[in-house]
């Protein structure tokens, strides 16, 4: 990869008294400067590429409704929601950019440096989306700057952005000065744009800003129809990704868990925006490490593969699915025993998901089944009520049985406890149900045959008007059905 060797150390000035900041030159670039003749040549001879027939994005009506709800909650307050900035990976390379969930949820836009500002008026707010305009052709930015159009691609013009997102658009480079001069109450979503926060430092309070963040998190608890459709797309792509993995398990055995990771990633990038989180491709005893994302271990016939992965759609909605698969296609007797216990626990958990139920009910139902099995197997002393009261099953279950799902894999994380884990399920909520049993390789409290076996089964469950729908039902869950599915895929 090359990076802007020819950045100009001395670009033209905007006036005699106010020189424009020069475009930064790479220290060891091969071109020391730009001749006047070349600079003049690059200013002209370019076709007009303005896009005139743009249609609003698919979720424009939904984002407008979300902004209206936000406006109603904070009358009279100026609201500032940044997308965030590029983050340096190393030297002059950046991480792939992902806009803040709050910003993308309210606008549908995903470009770096964007900021949504809601200006208060008598009967609501006026929304403006502040963006970088197309890169400048007069001063050479479009070909000299490392973020110029010829280096990283064309940005939408402000006029184009207005058509796409249904929001008036302005130049974000002017926003910080405007915010410094602003009066009246202001709230900002923190943690994404240090420059914007600095401009508001004397106008905001942590308490008021937290109220904004919490509201935007809780607003996502119940998904609209567009969101449900995107979640189903994410899950459907994820199902195909799991099928891809099963078909290449022989190649993974010849290499490592990395082959599984790369195989699933290909599906995510072809059909979606990315993976929704670091794929867990845990073979053998690695399955007992809950977030095993190193994915550098061996894949051996006779072991289990715990694959926890999800495709993220182009609109940022992610699936989160786990299957624990026998690498050779058949569960051993002890593997099946443990797997079937987790399956029974998941069945109990899914059955508890319905409108009006407490959020905690599915967790409690699944944990009870796991505790019963552990007592039955003699791994912990009963009765079951004692085990649950003391949380003794957690030595082998470790984690909660699920979480909200949406634009974040652990969605709505800033919501108040009383509206989330102590809340009640409503139609449109989407959550995971994912019990597991993990017997560490060095756990001397269990028989040797259990050690190094980890099993998790996870599905994405939508709360409906009359119960629930398993969005990931396209992947088999029963042990016998998993074996038949794998055999069919392997031909």
From TrEMBL:
<feature type="region of interest" description="Disordered">
    <location>
        <begin position="1"/>
        <end position="37"/>
    </location>
</feature>
<dbReference type="InterPro" id="IPR007865">
    <property type="entry name" value="Aminopep_P_N"/>
</dbReference>
<dbReference type="InterPro" id="IPR052433">
    <property type="entry name" value="X-Pro_dipept-like"/>
</dbReference>
<dbReference type="InterPro" id="IPR029149">
    <property type="entry name" value="Creatin/AminoP/Spt16_N"/>
</dbReference>
<dbReference type="Pfam" id="PF05195">
    <property type="entry name" value="AMP_N"/>
</dbReference>
<keyword id="KW-0378">Hydrolase</keyword>
<dbReference type="GO" id="GO:0004177">
    <property type="term" value="F:aminopeptidase activity"/>
</dbReference>
<keyword id="KW-0464">Manganese</keyword>
<keyword id="KW-0479">Metal-binding</keyword>
<comment type="similarity">
    <text>Belongs to the peptidase M24B family.</text>
</comment>
<dbReference type="InterPro" id="IPR001131">
    <property type="entry name" value="Peptidase_M24B_aminopep-P_CS"/>
</dbReference>
<keyword id="KW-0645">Protease</keyword>
<dbReference type="Pfam" id="PF00557">
    <property type="entry name" value="Peptidase_M24"/>
</dbReference>
<keyword id="KW-0031">Aminopeptidase</keyword>
<dbReference type="InterPro" id="IPR000994">
    <property type="entry name" value="Pept_M24"/>
</dbReference>
<protein>
    <recommendedName>
        <fullName>Xaa-Pro aminopeptidase</fullName>
        <ecNumber>3.4.11.9</ecNumber>
    </recommendedName>
</protein>
<dbReference type="InterPro" id="IPR036005">
    <property type="entry name" value="Creatinase/aminopeptidase-like"/>
</dbReference>
<feature type="domain" description="Aminopeptidase P N-terminal">
    <location>
        <begin position="58"/>
        <end position="197"/>
    </location>
</feature>
């Amino acid at each position: 990869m090359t990076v802007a060797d020819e950045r100009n150390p001395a670009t033209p000035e905007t006036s005699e008294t106010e020189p424009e900041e020069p475009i930064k030159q790479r220290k060891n670039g091969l071109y020391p400067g730009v001749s006047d003749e070349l600079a003049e040549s690059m200013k002209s001879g370019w076709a007009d590429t303005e896009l005139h027939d743009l249609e609003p994005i698919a979720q424009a009506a939904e984002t407008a409704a979300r902004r209206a709800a936000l406006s109603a909650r904070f009358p009279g307050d100026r609201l500032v929601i940044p997308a965030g900035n590029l983050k340096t990976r190393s030297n002059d390379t950046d991480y792939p950019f992902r806009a803040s969930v709050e910003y993308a949820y309210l606008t549908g836009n995903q470009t770096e440096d964007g900021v949504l500002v809601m200006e208060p008026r008598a009967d609501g707010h006026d929304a403006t989306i502040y963006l970088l305009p197309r890169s400048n052709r007069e001063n050479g930015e479009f070909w000299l700057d490392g973020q110029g159009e010829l280096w990283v691609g064309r940005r939408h013009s402000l006029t184009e952005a207005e058509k796409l997102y249904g929001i008036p658009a302005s130049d974000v480079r002017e926003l910080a000065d405007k915010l410094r001069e602003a009066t009246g109450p202001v709230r900002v979503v923190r943690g994404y744009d240090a420059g914007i926060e600095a401009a508001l430092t004397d106008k905001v309070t942590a308490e008021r800003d937290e109220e904004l963040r919490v509201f935007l998190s809780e607003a996502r608890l119940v998904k609209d129809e567009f969101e449900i459709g995107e979640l189903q797309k994410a899950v459907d792509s994820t199902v195909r990704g799991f099928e891809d993995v099963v078909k290449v398990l022989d190649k993974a055995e010849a290499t490592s868990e990395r082959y599984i990771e790369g195989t699933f990633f290909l599906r995510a990038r072809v059909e979606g925006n990315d993976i929704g989180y670091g794929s867990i491709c845990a073979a053998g005893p690695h399955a007992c490490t809950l977030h095993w994302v190193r994915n550098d271990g061996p894949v051996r016939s006779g072991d289990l593969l715990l694959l926890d992965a999800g495709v993220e759609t182009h609109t940022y909605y992610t699936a989160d699915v786990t299957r624990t698969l026998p690498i050779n296609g058949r569960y051993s007797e002890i593997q099946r025993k443990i797997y079937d216990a987790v399956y029974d626990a998941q069945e109990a958990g899914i059955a508890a998901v319905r409108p009006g139920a407490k959020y905690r009910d599915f967790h409690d139902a699944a944990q009870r089944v796991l505790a019963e099995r552990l007592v039955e197997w003699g791994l912990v002393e009963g009765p079951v009520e004692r085990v649950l009261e003391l949380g003794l099953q957690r030595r082998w279950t470790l984690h909660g049985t699920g979480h909200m799902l949406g634009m974040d894999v652990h969605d709505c994380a800033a919501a108040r406890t009383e509206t989330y884990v102590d809340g009640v399920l409503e139609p449109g909520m989407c959550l995971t149900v994912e019990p597991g049993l993990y017997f560490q390789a060095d756990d001397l409290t269990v028989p040797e045959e259990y050690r190094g076996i980890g099993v998790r089964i996870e599905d994405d469950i939508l709360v409906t008007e009359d119960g629930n729908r398993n969005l990931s039902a396209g992947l088999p869950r029963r042990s016998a059905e998993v074996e038949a599915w794998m055999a069919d895929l392997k031909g």
